[in-house]
Design brief:
Helix content is 40%, strand content 17%. It is built from 8 helices and 7 strands; from the N terminus they run ααββαββαβαβαβαα. Strands 1, 2, 5 and 7 form a 4-stranded mixed β-sheet that branches. The protein has a 3-stranded antiparallel β-sheet with strand order 3-4-6. Helix 7 crosses helix 8. It is elongated.
Length: 207
Protein backbone atom coordinates (compact mmCIF):
# COMPACT_ATOMS: atom_id res chain seq x y z
CA UNK A 1 0.00 0.00 0.00
CA UNK A 2 1.28 3.46 -0.92
CA UNK A 3 2.31 5.63 2.00
CA UNK A 4 3.57 2.80 4.24
CA UNK A 5 7.19 3.87 3.69
CA UNK A 6 6.33 7.45 4.64
CA UNK A 7 4.62 6.29 7.82
CA UNK A 8 7.60 4.09 8.73
CA UNK A 9 9.97 7.00 8.24
CA UNK A 10 7.82 9.27 10.40
CA UNK A 11 7.71 6.56 13.07
CA UNK A 12 11.52 6.28 13.11
CA UNK A 13 11.75 10.08 13.44
CA UNK A 14 9.27 10.08 16.32
CA UNK A 15 11.20 7.33 18.12
CA UNK A 16 14.46 9.30 17.80
CA UNK A 17 12.66 12.42 19.05
CA UNK A 18 11.36 10.62 22.16
CA UNK A 19 14.70 8.90 22.81
CA UNK A 20 16.39 12.30 22.84
CA UNK A 21 14.36 13.40 25.87
CA UNK A 22 14.77 10.03 27.56
CA UNK A 23 18.53 10.33 27.19
CA UNK A 24 18.42 13.92 28.45
CA UNK A 25 16.67 12.71 31.61
CA UNK A 26 19.30 10.00 32.13
CA UNK A 27 22.05 12.62 31.83
CA UNK A 28 20.28 15.22 33.98
CA UNK A 29 22.77 17.42 35.78
CA UNK A 30 25.63 16.28 33.55
CA UNK A 31 27.11 17.71 30.39
CA UNK A 32 27.44 15.82 27.16
CA UNK A 33 30.51 17.80 26.18
CA UNK A 34 32.85 16.18 28.67
CA UNK A 35 35.14 13.33 27.53
CA UNK A 36 32.73 10.89 29.19
CA UNK A 37 29.72 12.44 27.46
CA UNK A 38 31.43 12.53 24.07
CA UNK A 39 32.40 8.87 24.42
CA UNK A 40 28.78 8.02 25.23
CA UNK A 41 27.37 9.99 22.32
CA UNK A 42 29.98 8.56 19.93
CA UNK A 43 29.28 4.96 20.88
CA UNK A 44 26.98 2.57 19.04
CA UNK A 45 24.62 2.55 22.04
CA UNK A 46 23.73 6.24 21.86
CA UNK A 47 20.07 7.16 21.52
CA UNK A 48 18.29 10.22 20.23
CA UNK A 49 19.70 13.32 18.59
CA UNK A 50 22.99 14.98 19.53
CA UNK A 51 23.46 18.66 18.70
CA UNK A 52 26.59 20.65 19.51
CA UNK A 53 25.80 24.26 20.43
CA UNK A 54 28.80 25.72 18.62
CA UNK A 55 30.65 28.03 19.34
CA UNK A 56 29.67 27.93 23.01
CA UNK A 57 30.24 24.17 23.02
CA UNK A 58 32.90 22.41 20.96
CA UNK A 59 33.77 18.81 20.31
CA UNK A 60 37.34 17.88 21.26
CA UNK A 61 39.43 17.21 18.17
CA UNK A 62 41.40 13.94 17.91
CA UNK A 63 45.17 14.07 18.20
CA UNK A 64 45.67 13.29 14.51
CA UNK A 65 43.41 16.15 13.43
CA UNK A 66 45.39 18.48 11.17
CA UNK A 67 44.87 22.01 9.99
CA UNK A 68 47.25 24.90 9.28
CA UNK A 69 50.98 24.02 9.55
CA UNK A 70 53.11 25.52 12.33
CA UNK A 71 56.87 26.01 12.67
CA UNK A 72 58.49 24.56 15.77
CA UNK A 73 60.99 26.47 17.87
CA UNK A 74 63.36 24.93 20.42
CA UNK A 75 64.63 26.64 23.55
CA UNK A 76 68.37 26.75 24.22
CA UNK A 77 70.14 26.75 27.58
CA UNK A 78 69.77 30.55 27.78
CA UNK A 79 66.02 30.46 27.23
CA UNK A 80 66.18 31.76 23.65
CA UNK A 81 63.97 30.23 20.98
CA UNK A 82 65.52 28.98 17.74
CA UNK A 83 63.80 27.67 14.64
CA UNK A 84 64.18 24.04 13.73
CA UNK A 85 63.60 25.14 10.15
CA UNK A 86 66.78 25.39 8.06
CA UNK A 87 64.99 26.97 5.06
CA UNK A 88 65.94 23.98 2.89
CA UNK A 89 62.83 24.52 0.76
CA UNK A 90 61.64 20.90 0.62
CA UNK A 91 58.23 21.84 2.05
CA UNK A 92 57.72 24.46 -0.66
CA UNK A 93 58.66 21.96 -3.37
CA UNK A 94 56.29 19.20 -2.22
CA UNK A 95 53.36 21.55 -1.44
CA UNK A 96 50.59 20.64 -3.96
CA UNK A 97 48.93 24.09 -4.11
CA UNK A 98 52.30 25.92 -3.85
CA UNK A 99 51.21 28.12 -0.94
CA UNK A 100 54.58 28.24 0.91
CA UNK A 101 57.22 30.95 0.38
CA UNK A 102 60.52 31.02 2.25
CA UNK A 103 62.92 33.96 2.57
CA UNK A 104 66.36 32.47 3.24
CA UNK A 105 69.02 34.01 5.46
CA UNK A 106 72.42 34.88 3.97
CA UNK A 107 75.70 35.50 5.72
CA UNK A 108 76.41 39.22 5.20
CA UNK A 109 80.10 38.55 4.49
CA UNK A 110 80.24 35.27 2.58
CA UNK A 111 76.71 35.51 1.14
CA UNK A 112 76.30 31.83 1.87
CA UNK A 113 72.92 30.58 3.14
CA UNK A 114 72.42 30.40 6.90
CA UNK A 115 70.23 27.52 8.17
CA UNK A 116 67.48 29.74 9.54
CA UNK A 117 64.74 31.54 7.57
CA UNK A 118 64.38 35.31 7.57
CA UNK A 119 60.67 34.81 7.01
CA UNK A 120 58.26 32.03 6.17
CA UNK A 121 54.87 32.61 4.54
CA UNK A 122 51.83 30.37 4.10
CA UNK A 123 48.64 31.46 2.37
CA UNK A 124 46.08 29.66 4.55
CA UNK A 125 43.31 30.30 2.02
CA UNK A 126 45.19 28.17 -0.50
CA UNK A 127 46.55 25.58 1.96
CA UNK A 128 44.67 22.29 1.59
CA UNK A 129 45.83 20.94 4.99
CA UNK A 130 47.27 17.81 3.37
CA UNK A 131 50.26 17.63 5.74
CA UNK A 132 52.84 16.94 3.03
CA UNK A 133 55.08 19.74 4.34
CA UNK A 134 55.14 18.15 7.81
CA UNK A 135 55.60 14.64 6.41
CA UNK A 136 58.57 15.50 4.18
CA UNK A 137 60.35 17.93 6.51
CA UNK A 138 63.69 16.24 7.37
CA UNK A 139 64.15 18.32 10.53
CA UNK A 140 60.72 17.87 12.17
CA UNK A 141 60.34 21.62 11.90
CA UNK A 142 56.78 21.66 10.54
CA UNK A 143 53.77 20.13 12.27
CA UNK A 144 50.02 20.41 11.75
CA UNK A 145 48.05 22.54 14.18
CA UNK A 146 44.63 21.93 15.76
CA UNK A 147 43.36 25.52 15.51
CA UNK A 148 40.54 25.57 12.95
CA UNK A 149 38.82 28.84 13.92
CA UNK A 150 40.36 31.15 11.33
CA UNK A 151 37.39 33.30 10.30
CA UNK A 152 38.31 36.89 9.48
CA UNK A 153 36.81 39.96 7.85
CA UNK A 154 39.87 40.63 5.68
CA UNK A 155 41.43 37.45 4.31
CA UNK A 156 43.88 39.37 2.11
CA UNK A 157 45.54 40.84 5.20
CA UNK A 158 44.92 38.26 7.92
CA UNK A 159 45.32 34.98 6.04
CA UNK A 160 48.89 35.34 4.81
CA UNK A 161 50.69 33.87 7.82
CA UNK A 162 54.31 34.92 8.39
CA UNK A 163 56.99 33.28 10.52
CA UNK A 164 55.95 35.18 13.61
CA UNK A 165 52.39 33.90 13.32
CA UNK A 166 53.39 30.35 12.36
CA UNK A 167 56.08 29.82 15.02
CA UNK A 168 55.17 27.80 18.12
CA UNK A 169 57.40 26.35 20.86
CA UNK A 170 57.92 22.60 20.99
CA UNK A 171 55.99 22.57 24.28
CA UNK A 172 52.87 23.63 22.34
CA UNK A 173 53.28 20.68 19.98
CA UNK A 174 53.78 18.34 22.96
CA UNK A 175 50.50 19.61 24.39
CA UNK A 176 48.32 19.10 21.30
CA UNK A 177 49.98 15.86 20.12
CA UNK A 178 51.41 14.13 23.21
CA UNK A 179 51.56 10.63 21.69
CA UNK A 180 53.35 11.76 18.54
CA UNK A 181 55.71 13.99 20.53
CA UNK A 182 56.71 11.16 22.89
CA UNK A 183 57.34 8.77 19.99
CA UNK A 184 59.39 11.31 18.04
CA UNK A 185 61.47 12.31 21.05
CA UNK A 186 62.22 8.63 21.77
CA UNK A 187 63.46 8.22 18.20
CA UNK A 188 65.56 11.38 18.44
CA UNK A 189 67.10 10.17 21.70
CA UNK A 190 67.88 6.77 20.16
CA UNK A 191 69.55 8.40 17.15
CA UNK A 192 71.60 10.67 19.42
CA UNK A 193 72.70 7.67 21.48
CA UNK A 194 73.80 5.86 18.30
CA UNK A 195 75.87 8.85 17.24
CA UNK A 196 77.55 9.00 20.66
CA UNK A 197 78.33 5.28 20.51
CA UNK A 198 79.72 5.61 16.98
CA UNK A 199 81.89 8.56 17.99
CA UNK A 200 83.17 6.68 21.06
CA UNK A 201 83.97 3.61 18.99
CA UNK A 202 85.82 5.73 16.44
CA UNK A 203 87.81 7.51 19.13
CA UNK A 204 88.75 4.32 20.96
CA UNK A 205 92.27 3.08 20.17
CA UNK A 206 92.45 0.10 17.86
CA UNK A 207 93.13 -3.11 19.77
Amino acid sequence: MYGIGVLKGMWVTLVHFIQTFVDDIKWAGKRYYTPEGIAHRSSKDTKGIFTVQYPEEKLPVPEEFRYIPILLQEEDEHGNLHDRCTSCGICAKVCPPQCIWIVRTEDPVTKRPVPEPVDFFIDVDICMNCGYCAEYCPFDAIKMDHDYELATFDRHVQNIYNKEKLSKPVSYYAKIRPTNYAREEALRAAEAAKKVEAAAAKAAPAS
